[in-house]
Amino acid sequence: DAKTTQPTSMDCAEGRAANLPCNHSTISGNEYVYWYRQIHSQGPQYIIHGLKNNETNEMASLIITEDRKSSTLILPHATLRDTAVYYCIVRALTGANSKLTFGKGITLSVRP
Amino acid sequence: DGGITQSPKYLFRKEGQNVTLSCEQNLNHDAMYWYRQDPGQGLRLIYYSQIVNDFQKGDIAEGYSVSREKKESFPLTVTSAQKNPTAFYLCASTSAGKTTNEKLFFGSGTQLSVL
Q: How far B80 CA sits from the closest chain A CA (Å)?
């Protein structure tokens, strides 16, 4: 399985953009990059995913480098409710089976 | 509403006791997963199942058992062999296709503690 590495933590000011980096240098050609976030004591919530092209939805934007070895999740206008642990994962597919592995994620703290 | 339901929300285990955590989904998903989360840590995969009557060990399967008799249900049993069971347990599901273009849906979790 491709692994991801993320910084342990970061913070940003409320109303500013939060840029969360992720490295996935061993990603395979058919693997997608997914982002989830987890607010304390809740189940993780899906944010966005992508393969090669940049993606945007109502929650965030995902920028994937051309070589696909890294990506950045962008929260354009961070709010206090965006304080959470953000997980970057890649989906491993082996035949008909698939195993999803989460690392420790990055803790984002949004300050007033 | 469609979703994935875990119960109970809190569970206490006595020494030497087996306990079972419930996970039910009405999303018609083929694949289901169990994760364990310790304080300040990420999610570690315990078991997963891609289809009824089949499941595979994850990274930390020792001391746990599962069954997948029905598509919508994937219960996890924490056996007495699991010496450090106190953790937050998360169940998840997704449709198992031939691409990786599927979202993972999580339940709200069960907090297991040892008395």
A: 25
Rg (CA), chain B: 14
Q: Among candidates A67, A41, A45, A66, which has minimal Cα distance to A57?
A: A45
Mean pLDDT of B33-46: 91
Q: A86-101 pLDDT, tens per residue? A: 999 987 655 444 567 7
Query: Three-state SS for A81?
Result: helix
Cβ of B48 under 8 Å from any chain A Cβ?
yes
Write out chain B residues lying below 8 Å of A49, CB-based: 101, 103
Residue B37 confidence (pLDDT) above 90:
yes
- Residue whose C-alpha is closest to residue B105's, from A105, A44, A37: A44
Q: How many CB pairs under 8 A join A and B?
A: 66
Backbone angles phi, psi at A94, to 5 degrees: -125, 105
